[in-house]
Specification:
The complex is a heterodimer of chains A (292) and B (348).
Chain A: H1 18-45, H2 48-56, H3 58-91, H4 97-109, H5 112-122, H6 128-135, H7 144-168, H8 172-180, H9 185-214, H10 217-222, H11 240-249, H12 253-280
Helix pairs in contact in A: 1-12, 2-12, 3-7, 3-9, 4-7, 7-9, 8-9, 11-12
Chain B: E1 4-13, E2 16-25, E3 30-34, H1 41-49, E4 54-61, E5 64-65, E6 76-79, H2 91-95, H3 97-101, H4 107-117, H5 133-146, E7 151-155, H6 163-180, E8 184-187, H7 191-197, E9 200-205, E10 208-213, H8 215-220, H9 225-231, E11 235-237, H10 239-243, H11 250-255, E12 262-265, E13 270-271, E14 280-288, E15 294-300, E16 303-309, E17 323-326, E18 334-336
Helix pairs in contact in B: 4-5, 5-6
The chains are: A mainly alpha (292), B alpha+beta (348).
């Protein structure tokens, strides 16, 4: 049985032709192998004891905390700024929209070191923006703000694009029904558009977070070492990506592998939790959708 | 109760122009908007609903101008094509929605009565994705009524319903009209629905109103091939088709009686008494039994004519290739596209 509005449930693989199944398995499987093998190598190089040691190391903990904290702020910034931009692109017609769409996609395509350099020149001491940021108490060089700035730059586009697509997918007739039933534009957005688009937006936010924590290029230039200040008042440290880079550069291969593995476990746990939450209906999005 | 008046209303959607439309609606009146695809039926509903801005004219409720009011202040229950249900909300939270957005704290409790009335109580906690077509229609209607609208706009109900659900819903529709005395503007492709619920028909063609009046009038005087087909005329010929007929043929006979857009007439009865006078002869191309007796398609010269059979007891279903005789009652002929001449289109 297929109900209206939902996708047809997936057929078991065995129900399809054998050569077709083999082709799918080989193609999809190759990519999965590519994803998994390097991670497997990391784990074999770092025995559980080393990972445990890394987890207890205050320097590693500080770096993990900084990375999670800064990426959390980047995700919040995406919620505040990227979702409205996505909504605007999806629902409004305005001159220059194509240009705006291209600008949004640009940070994804630019090499990371270029991002750092661009921000460096923009905020170079003596520049108006430097004077402004220092005056209002958000200096960027070697502070958490620098990390956040780079993270937002490289990661927010994922949320803009996901929001754009998700809002576009909301049937305008459903919105019109909401309006005629008494909802004003803002109310219709909050009760209908946003909840319906939420699942896609959350997928975008997850990508934003993933992209933020994996950033290194721009951070190397703007905030190689992070000193306490602003919302961050932990010890002097750096992001996980920079820490691992440092360890590798200094020949501490085993420790680099251990720290990497530890962080991978944390990221993996987060992704699995969100997916599981969606599937089991703990999370407020995706409700009412057909589960095969 | 409420009276609505729509005067010289026009609107534009990209390159499509609608109107001018005049429409007066009293309590409990049901107007069916008919027209071919792209005639502007949905655009008319969306203009009334405030989703397409009016370019001129006026929409008023009890004399109060609503032409520029936003959709949420018009007092409408709009059921769009596809129903527009909220798939992220349960049935009860779909129905309570209009009350929730009005800030009513008793929204859920209030909506229970509606759920009960529409037989939805047992489905209250289900999501729309798991409901059948008929159930979804009832949810959409219950939700529209929860807004306590002064006018219901309904785009293509019945669209995805099976026979049982259609029947069930037409009962609900009658109830709604009798109890709530609410005017309804319904867009439909379904003649059965249109004839069973509508007090008036409004026919659109390319954005213009070509007919507005009682269903019976449209039946007697279809304005064009579309309306003729819609109200159930199964014999429709344009002048080009008829022009091929040789003198003395059925084609020539019909051509002499047709309007600028051709002619329509209902299925003539197949004569079983073989009266030769004034009767045409055709060769059977298909025949199927119907509750009334049977439906036959026969070729007469270059024309294919739809015929009907009397009660099964009177005559057996003819076989393919059989010759049948029939007579076309001149009083049933409907010239199409003609400006009302009045003499040939009297009641049959």
């Amino acid at each position: 049985m297929t109900a209206r509005g939902g996708p047809a449930p997936a057929r078991p693989l065995a129900a399809r032709g054998a050569p077709w199944v083999v082709l799918q398995l080989v193609l999809a499987g190759s990519l999965l192998v590519l994803f998994v093998l390097p991670l497997y190598a990391l784990f074999t190089y770092a025995p559980p004891a080393a990972i445990g040691a890394a987890a207890r190391d205050p320097a590693v903990r500080a770096a993990i905390w900084l990375t999670l904290f800064a990426s959390g702020i980047a995700v919040l910034a995406a919620v505040v700024f990227a979702i409205p931009l996505g909504y605007l692109l999806a629902r409004r017609r305005f001159p220059g929209r194509t240009v705006v769409e291209a600008v949004v996609a640009l940070p994804v395509a630019v090499p990371h070191l270029l991002v750092g350099l661009g921000l460096f020149f923009l905020l170079i001491p003596g520049s108006p923006l430097y004077r402004f940021t220092t005056a209002v108490g958000i200096p960027v060089y070697d502070t958490i703000w620098g990390v956040v700035l780079v993270m937002v730059f490289v990661s927010a586009p994922y949320t803009v694009l996901a929001s754009d697509l998700s809002f576009r997918a909301v049937d305008p007739r459903v919105l019109e029904a909401a309006r005629s039933l008494g909802a004003g534009p803002a109310s219709a957005f909050l009760t209908v558009s946003f909840p319906l688009a939420l699942r896609g937006i959350v997928a975008g936010l997850l990508l934003t977070w993933a992209r933020a924590v994996s950033e290194i290029g721009g951070i190397l230039i703007l905030a190689y070492t992070v000193y306490p200040g602003g919302p961050y008042n932990g010890p002097v440290t750096s992001t996980i990506s920079v820490l691992v880079y440092d360890l590798f550069q200094n020949g501490n291969l085993k420790e680099a592998a251990a720290v990497s593995s530890l962080f991978l476990l944390i990221a993996f746990a987060l992704f699995v939790t969100v997916r599981l939450g969606e599937r089991l209906g703990w999370l407020p999005w995706g409700r009412g959708e057909l589960v095969p | 109760m409420t009276r609505w008046s729509v005067e010289r209303l026009t609107s534009r959607l990209e390159r499509f122009e609608l109107g001018p439309v005049d429409l007066a609606l009293g309590p409990g009146e049901v107007v069916a908007v008919l027209g071919a695809s792209g005639a502007g039926k949905t655009t008319l509903l969306r203009t009334l609903g405030g989703f397409v801005p009016a370019t001129s004219g006026r929409i008023a409720r009890e004399g109060v101008d609503l032409t520029r009011s936003p959709p949420e202040r018009r007092g409408l229950g709009y059921v769009p094509q596809g129903l527009g249900l909220f798939r992220h909300r349960t049935v009860e939270r779909n129905v309570s929605y209009p009350l929730e957005v009005r800030g009513r704290t008793d929204a859920l409790r209030e909506s229970r009565a509606l759920l009960e009335r529409f037989g939805l109580s047992s489905l209250a906690r289900r999501y729309p994705a798991s409901l059948s077509g008929g159930e979804l229609e009832r949810v959409a209607l219950a939700r529209a009524l929860a807004a306590e609208p002064e006018l219901v706009l309904w785009d293509e109900p019945w669209q995805a319903l099976d026979v049982e659900a259609r029947h069930e819903l037409s009962v609900v529709f009658e109830e709604l009209r009798a109890a709530a005395r609410m005017p309804v503007v319904v867009v439909t492709h379904d003649p059965g629905l249109a004839f069973s619920v509508a007090d008036r028909f409004l026919v659109l063609r390319a954005g213009k109103v070509t007919f507005q009046g009682a269903p019976g009038t449209l039946l007697e005087r279809p304005t064009d091939p579309f309306t003729a087909r819609f109200v159930g005329y199964e014999n429709l010929f344009d002048r080009a088709e008829l022009g091929e007929g040789v003198p003395g043929s059925l084609g020539a006979w019909l051509l002499a009686r047709s309007g600028p857009a051709g002619i329509a007439f209902p299925r003539p009865l197949v004569r079983t008494d073989r009266e030769p006078q004034g009767a045409w002869e055709g060769v059977v191309r298909s025949a199927r039994p119907t509750p009334e007796g049977g439906a036959v398609a026969a070729t007469v010269g270059s024309l294919s004519v739809a015929l009907r059979l009397g009660p099964p007891s009177e005559a057996p279903l003819p076989a393919l290739g059989d010759r049948v005789r029939f007579e076309v009652d001149e009083r049933t002929l409907r010239p199409l596209g003609a400006h009302d001449s009045g003499d040939r289109s009297g009641p049959a």
